[in-house]
Specification:
With 549 residues, the protein is an alpha/beta fold. It folds into 3 domains: 2-167, Thiamin diphosphate (ThDP)-binding fold, Pyr/PP domains (Rossmann fold), CATH 3.40.50; 184-348, TPP-binding domain (Rossmann fold, 3-Layer(aba) Sandwich); 352-548, Rossmann fold (3-Layer(aba) Sandwich), CATH 3.40.50. It is 38% helix and 17% strand. It has 21 helices and 20 strands. The strands form 4 sheets. It has a 6-stranded parallel beta sheet, sandwiched between helices. It has a 6-stranded parallel beta sheet with strand order 11-10-9-12-13-14, with helices on both faces. Strand 2, helix 2 and strand 3 form a beta-alpha-beta unit.
Amino acid sequence: MKTGGQLIVEALEANGVDRLYCVPGESYLAVLDALADSAISPIVCRQEGGAAMMADCHGRLTGKPGICFVTRGPGATNASAGIHIAAQDSIPLILFVGQVARGNLEREAFQEIDYRAFYGSVAKWVVEIDDPARIPELLTRAFTVATSGRPGPVVVALPEDVLSERAQAPAALPFVPVETQPGTAEMEAFHRLLATAKRPIAILGGTRWSDKAVADFQKFAESWNLPVACSFRRQMLFDHLHPSYAGDIGIGPNPKLAQAVREADVVLLVGGRFGEMPSSDYTLLKSPYPDQALVHVHADAAELGRVYRPSLAINASAAAFAAAAVGLKPSAPPAWAERTEDLHSAYLDWSTPPETGPGAVQMGPIMAYLETVLPDDAILANGAGNYATWIHRFHRFRRYATQAAPTSGSMGYGTPAAVAAKGLFPERTVIAFAGDGCFLMNGQEFATAVQYGLPIVVIVVNNGIYGTIRMHQEREYPGRVVATDLTNPDFAALARAYGGHGETVETTADFAPAFERARASGKPAIIEIKLDPEAITPTRTLSEIREKR
């Protein structure tokens, strides 16, 4: 006879969980007690949103479900930001949330929430366990649902008395991963289509990738001299210095790349959904009927034909498709070699940072410096804001599992993601980029980095405004500035107050020595860059945006 809390922990261990992210709560004390006798390391966070984002980053970089525990009511609602990210980004995650005792349900008891109603439209599956004997069964299913097809978040609600009640239950067994393989007929059809193409392009996105899958697809691209682009914030899926790389298709893509997608006769979309942001509001590929012949490869059959009608639908994971594609060889040298070379050259030009700009701090030279000192396996994390353009456009990703950024566009993601990444890969350099507004949404997780001795470097680009909204404001309502100005703390002093290392950069020349001191400190560090608000984009100032209107 074991408590529900013990059965939960045993099921996690059986499924290979060695760490989880949590904010403790009285609603799941029995689980916390059971953790004391396990080998699972709980990472104690400062806010449930940060904990859920750490779990998301765990799933994003490993492909295994990130595990998060939060308490009921306010804990559950705080965590919803991370669940939304995992849902839109197709990340495997399991959120365990406390619930009132079974006898108090439907009374609006203290902090009671109907989790099926609350999470039903965003989570992949929501289950409330009302019998401790079924815990092994339902947790095995939770892992299967979170990882199969299109991965996503699962929410498991735990009534308080279920966790303390004792029951006999079968020993938990690990879930069996569900793979989807491409059919022989589909691969033959794809081979014929590619062999007769004149202007093909591949776009990589989504999840269900691995180091091997990335290497397999690169070999396939080399065989065909195929131009390859990465979808919004999926840039770690292809080596940016490979001669086949054509660039990323995100917000404001390279116009030459966007035109190449429009002019393509065959588009191979692997793993991704190509939603509103990368498709430039469904104009690069028209929904529902693209102008190009679309080969859509996705692990979830429900995604095939949902937004775009494909010419060829292949129900397979990205990894399985890449493994199969390696065996496809052209019968003659492809005719588009010069086009591939031109697109890569255009990418190199597009990703070369500018040397000048308004103000005393120039972000272009800072990015150029980072490209010379960051190792190929450095992990870059960020949330959302105009500052992120400097990473997405000018950092050249070389390896898989080096990017943690929400395609959902959520602010506040970078710092908690960096904490999780450094815990997973302590030997690697981990950098978080954040705007001043973005950082203060989950910046308290810097304390978590200090608590666990995780020497991340957080680069806070401080321009004193909600920059993206201000940019839109000046474009749509020039000169009518409302609700976008910010008053900020001294971020370097804040880092020191937490027990970390702090630096302030007020000129371009300040950055390199500040960065070296931050890394040498061996502590979690914040480098505050005081950026002129005029430097709102790499190519246009706020004043230029306002005047153009």
